Here is the input.
Amino acid sequence: MHNDGKVVPIKAAIDQVLIAPLARLPVVLLQVRDKAALQLRQGLQALFDNADDTLFEMADKAASNSVQNSLFEAMRDLRHKRMNIERGYLDRFYEAFARIGQSEPVSGVLPPTTSGSQDELERTVALEAMVDRALSRDGLALNQLTLRFSALTGHVLDDLRNPLGPAMLCEYFLQAGRDLGVGIKVKLIILQLFERYVLQDADLLYGEANQLLAATGVLPQLKAVPARRSQARPTERTQTCAGQVEGRAAAAELDANEQAVFTSLQSLLSRVRGRIAPRVEACKPMQPISTRDLLRLLSHLQHYVPPASEADDFDLHQQLEQLLTRVSMKSGTYRKVEGVDEDVINLIAMLFDFILDDRNLPYSLRALIGRLQIPMLKVAVLDKRFFSRSSHPARRLLNEIATAAMGWGASDDCQRDALYERVEKIVQRLLNDFDDDPAIFSELLAEFLAFNSDERRRNELLEQRTRDAEEGRARAQLARQRVEQEINRRLLGKTLPRFVVRVLEEAWSQVLLLACLKHGDTSPVWLKALETMDELIWSVQLHREPQALRRLLEVVPGLLKALRDGLASVAFDPFATSEFFAQLEALHVQAFESSYASSTPVSEDAERVLVLDEIVLACPEQPVPVQSPVRLADDDPAVLQVQRLRIGQWLEVIEDDEVLRCKLIAQIDSTGMLIFANRTGLKVREYSPMALSVALRRGAVRLLDDTLLFDRALDSVVNQLRRYQAR
Here is the structure.
């Protein structure tokens, strides 16, 4: 089901260490997981039962024999791989649940395809539509579950990365079925069945999970979501009316639940209130600033936001105090921001303080995002769902920009960078055009996602080429080592004609290398090449026994043919080939002539040498991987950090006061080397795991936190407010 081009060759051990011990998870979370696993298993079983019937009916109605045969092949493939897919699906489901007990979010939500083919486009569109339909049906219940998971684990989670969310449920299925050898038509049919038998009943998953968590005291104040279906299915008209009523009720419940989230934030913000007030003595009459008037003041400030180069000098509290002072003096009344609005202002200010100090973001990006403080504040004043809904367009826009620009380096020319220019236009558009209609964020988000999708597809295609090249280089390196081993095992310590040693080193080594790379070192082709080498070495040694000479007479014709075929396959120099066979023929003739001479050996023209030095095959110039003479203990924190690295992890390399940002794109199975590329997909670094561990220990490399920016900032601010409250 999944594009094979996306499969990155990394060791299974790395995936395993990502999984936190289940004992660390709360018992109630394990209960939620096990109940959900049972329902998902039943849904998958129903899916495959019906897939067989569906494909059989399609094959029965097929217009041609070729189509019918392809459908029957798909049925057989599904039957054979059904158990593996079901098992793989639940394995990934359990892994995702284990990860929510860690500070890292669950990874890999429906990654975009690296191919622009029509088949992949159809699959992507189908998946996105499935997820959107599930979110529209059950988004409220899922949002409640996400909030409860976040409260239970102490880590901010969003709906897209909730292990029970539709995006993740689809991701497990894609990964588990990536080896299915079926065409796009069958893939789309299977996806439709997955939606019908698994996603369609997601509301039951969320309802049971929310009920269990609420009963154990996890955010019990969130009001229960009305059931989506009754015991008996109503008629279509009744369904429509019921759906409208249910939609209005769900919207009301959503507002209430999201208000409950903001209310909990307000209780933490009580210690920082009172910081926004006019610089005049409090007097009567006192008149609170209405939300509408506050938005007018913010719109006024919005047009005076300094450029990115001066963003550090802009203090929101100070600017608002000056405006309130001016308004108070002009009106003769003490104007003060209302409590709810002040809480929003303080929360946004703290979020942006975190963002502007976040070293995980490139400085140029921090400066640009800093200019969005007032537009984001206005959104939050207008819509408190900004804080509780991870799918909020303004919040998503902030996260998407930060994620896209994670790889910016200090040496990048931002002014000529297409991504930087796009973000700069978004910032300027919001500062110029955003008044009080948040719809502009949805528009800008759609435009940015479309732009970034093209950029990301190009970068991922280059990453895939880099991975393929590194895999090929690693295979070639191992094959060279194997060939060197076999040649040296046969030549070291032997006295042989110099021309034979030269041909084996320069030419036959390439025959062996080609056989190893194309067919493997256990294949008949490889074994035949070794046998030919053995016969050549034996044939040029000094023989006096009549039995050996008879064998030589039998071996030579086949040996010469095998040598000619092998040298031709690697396009060895024709002149050198002719010279080699002439010398070999002379040597063999001398061996036969010696059998008719006296016991005194016949003199030989061929120079013989004693092979004492190991033969090392030449290889193309390659960057030298970073190795380390130092070895850290297996339980060293830096070693454990490297073991937990995941594909896509960003890090920062500090060399000679220069900073380079690069991403882990592969770990080569055969060598264990870690391959890092810049944000365009070009390889820039290669480390052994131990060398990277030592670099982390010395501070020459720093891992970057590439989790969602807003969620990371909100998590930090909430922890900061809790510390204030505990004092």
Q: What stands out?
A: The longest strand covers residues 658-667.
